[in-house]
Amino acid sequence: MISRRLAAIAALCCFAAACSSSSSAPDAEKKKAPAKASALPPETMPDAYRVRFETTKGNFTVEVKREWAPLGAERFYRLCREGYYNDAVFFRVVRKFVAQFGINKDPDTNSLWNMKAPLQDDKRVLENKRGTLSFAKLGPNTRRTQVFINLSDNKALDREDFVPFGRIVEGLPVVDELYAKYGETANRGGGGPDPRLAEQQGNAYFTRLFGSLDSIKKAVIEP
Description:
alpha+beta; Cyclophilin; eight-stranded antiparallel β-sheet; 8 strands
């Protein structure tokens, strides 16, 4: 059990690399400076907001506060406002560990976001407790679009510097029911999706090979 959990934690550290549009993406960023990620004007994002997720399994609501992780909260707000997560698949669900999403349905959109500069790290305020959301990352200052929901209290992820920016305040049982029978992703030796192919092919990849996966119908910022 211990070795299995350690392997799963290592997989989280590789989320960003596993889901880049090509295996050489990190080297490509070193060769030329990536486009600077635009920042929302401070007054655009409220200090606290909620996002309602309508999914194929049911609905849940996420509360986000600037004080928990300013940069993460702002990035999540922008992605939700732009509809990035609409029709996104929960492509990695490991029972009692995490549920991950954040690959756009459109390959071109994935490519554009991979060209943007990644986020600098926030200082961690919240613990990675059940129901909290954190951005996936490769290492320091590598957060982009992918997010995981903690399905249990994952204290080990605190030591790995994963920073929660929000938490589910309504509908938490819904995430426990997300389809998980495909198991671990292919890049981690499991029978689940290959994140690289998913980014390159979009939702057509999931539909063709992993049609039972649950997805987000839409993520709407509540007024």
